[in-house]
Recover the amino acids of this structure.
């Protein structure tokens, strides 16, 4: 971990070493100057990573050999020998608890130790803390706008800065108040609940009901398997009659995909509604399959929308689900989860709220993980403030007064809802 | 690497497996729909990572155990057994050479193989290629604006999405035409030339000339060490007289820092000029130390500015360097490198060019690595276009026609200058 720093930290470190002040007691504080996203607060995060980095702080023989090749040729051998012995065992790191609410100009991570190491840690700690805090803060802002009952899912794996950026995004979005991630590896590594539905490509991979294989599903309570294709086709006729939509407009490839998915996951059936027309195809097909499943004792769990006016459509979908539930006497039908995705931003959440949507779950990708409103927190790592004169024998930039721990309370992650 | 994907890829994979079409031949193409940053092109990058990911594609026993815990309980054991045997050995990946110029809607990475694996790779490949291509493109835009002779240095380690985001930023900025990185680990891992100067904290850690330790430097040609502190003070008087600035305005802590750095790195002396007043302190102090070094046979290599009107100041600095060079008969003085940093954006580069700056080297951090103008490339991974009807027995979404390799020429990285 030690070489994860800017080169100038090492040239300056050599400067301090050569002047004999590399072991002078020093301190630094990490903070940001303005609240991100024009807001008044942030969540301090990445602090546990900072601790891990301290434990792993060491230059390997290969690191030292590399540094020899890039530092000026006049650099003394003894400095490299010294680097090879260096660790952070004399460094003390203090921080607010992970996920605490923090404010501009109030340090939330403090480092004390020998000058040389305290300085070398600057870039590393900034790298570990800045994005973690930024994306946790962004997640919290989504949570505050969405309210405590909305299910929020992070799905930015394909939009982040590579695998590690994506894992950080999943982890710190969860700390910021999201409920789920789509990222399987993040689920495995961090224990974050993972969720997923189906993609348009799956729906489009079917063109006719003949492609469904296998076609039969046994009832939940046991008994003879039933041809779910035929059953869904029967229900489609009834649903179209109720909804007054022409049955020929319900795409049979989509119906085939839904039936196939339902046979595969009879207790977890979900439909993606907008591959073709939501109102005349996606919704009737979904209802038909969900009613067929119901006849066999299973409950569908949800639908997803990925385009169009999501708030407006969610209301129309809820109406249809209610109508089907009432007409066919399936009370749970109206509680089917409505999930949405498609470039969801803070503005989208404000619109959903203003329009009184029927949305239960929101997937957020790009606008969560890339933090486009402010893609960098701009943290700084400075000597403690309030030093007018350097202490005797200590370099001013890192001299160490007593500091007062900021009185920040921990940020509880209960029910995924930040308590502000 | 295999679990670095969205959960829905696995639920759909199970769907395909259960329908017996998991080994159907399939294909997918990776492209973007609109050129990033409102531009007409991008650089395709991350392609080598894609190949590495294919080689490493495998679900470990622990991965499979985790998947068992998150996929619906109805998922058959045989599917997990199948996942445990899966690799990408039957997958062919074709791509343009790393760093090629690519255009909207023209695939630059193509995957062929069994449907199930081709689909599982979707999110992973998007994750590996999207940010890599985006930041390489961003770097190229900076290079095009800066011109072929400007030295460009990436210094975004503290602003990227964690360590791996930062390493990707360094690597793909170099592919995009940057000359250097500040990131030591990136230098070590990828062989990118690393550079660094000094920070304000180093300058501020000195308050008086008494703190300089050691104080002496032997001449380059050998001989008795000379008190560089005293020599620099003598030169400061002469420089201030030439520049008509009051010697008492030249901050002695800054002079001490410069002298200390010069003694430490006599062949690589650089000055950061803007800790105090550039004109009355930073510049006279730098010139004094550089002239003292010159007297001992050494050449200073550069100055850096990190605030204010960079273009305007660069011109004033060049004037002073020329004046000193002429007056004290030190011809190399006017060629001292002027480096700038401080929130450099594309707009900054346009301004530098418009104002006719004297800048030789530019450090770019936040605006390079976070790509704030468009923080996500928005790549998609789709079945090849132009398929009206699915091939017999193949699912439509991934059916595989013959495709024509896009006629893209390789993007040479000669002298860091993209040839467009």
């Amino acid at each position: 971990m030690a070489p994860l720093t800017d080169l100038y930290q090492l040239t300056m470190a050599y400067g301090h070493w050569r002047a004999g002040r590399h072991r002078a007691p020093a301190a630094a504080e990490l903070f940001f100057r303005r609240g991100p996203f024009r807001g008044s607060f942030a969540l301090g995060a990445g602090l546990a990573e900072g601790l891990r980095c301290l434990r792993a702080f060491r230059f390997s023989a290969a690191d030292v050999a590399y540094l020899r090749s890039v530092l000026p040729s006049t650099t003394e051998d003894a400095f490299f020998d010294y680097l090879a012995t260096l660790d952070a065992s004399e460094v003390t790191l203090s921080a607010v608890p992970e996920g605490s609410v923090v404010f501009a100009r109030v340090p939330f991570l403090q480092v004390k130790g020998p000058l040389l190491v305290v300085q070398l840690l600057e870039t590393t700690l900034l790298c570990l803390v800045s994005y973690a805090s930024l994306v946790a803060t962004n997640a919290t802002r989504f949570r505050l706008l969405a309210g405590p009952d909305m299910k929020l899912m992070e799905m930015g794996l394909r939009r982040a800065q590579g695998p590690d950026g994506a894992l950080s995004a999943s982890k710190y979005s969860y700390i910021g108040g999201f409920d789920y991630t789509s990222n399987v590896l993040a689920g495995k590594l961090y224990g974050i609940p993972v969720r997923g539905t189906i993609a348009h490509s799956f729906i489009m991979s079917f063109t006719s009901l003949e492609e469904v294989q296998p076609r039969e599903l046994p009832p939940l309570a046991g008994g003879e398997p039933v041809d779910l294709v035929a059953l869904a086709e029967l229900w489609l006729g009834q649903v179209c009659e109720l909804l007054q939509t022409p049955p020929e407009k319900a795409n049979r490839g989509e119906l085939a995909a839904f039936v196939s998915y339902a046979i595969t996951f009879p207790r977890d059936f979900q439909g993606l509604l907008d591959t073709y027309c939501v109102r005349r195809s996606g919704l009737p097909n979904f209802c038909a399959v969900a009613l067929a499943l119901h006849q066999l004792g299973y409950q569908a769990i949800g639908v997803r929308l990925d385009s169009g006016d999501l708030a407006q459509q969610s209301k129309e979908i809820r109406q249809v689900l209610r109508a089907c539930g009432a007409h066919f006497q399936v009370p749970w039908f109206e509680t089917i989860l409505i999930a949405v995705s498609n470039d969801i931003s803070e503005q989208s959440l404000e619109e959903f709220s203003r329009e009184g949507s029927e949305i239960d779950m929101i997937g957020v990708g790009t606008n969560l993980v890339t933090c486009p409103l402010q893609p960098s927190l701009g943290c700084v790592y400075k000597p403690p403030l309030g030093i007018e004169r350097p202490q005797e024998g200590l370099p001013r930039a890192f001299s160490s007064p007593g500091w007062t721990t900021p009185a920040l309370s921990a940020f509880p992650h209960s029910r995924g809802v930040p308590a502000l």
In short: Chain A touches chain B through 94 residues (CB under 8 Å).
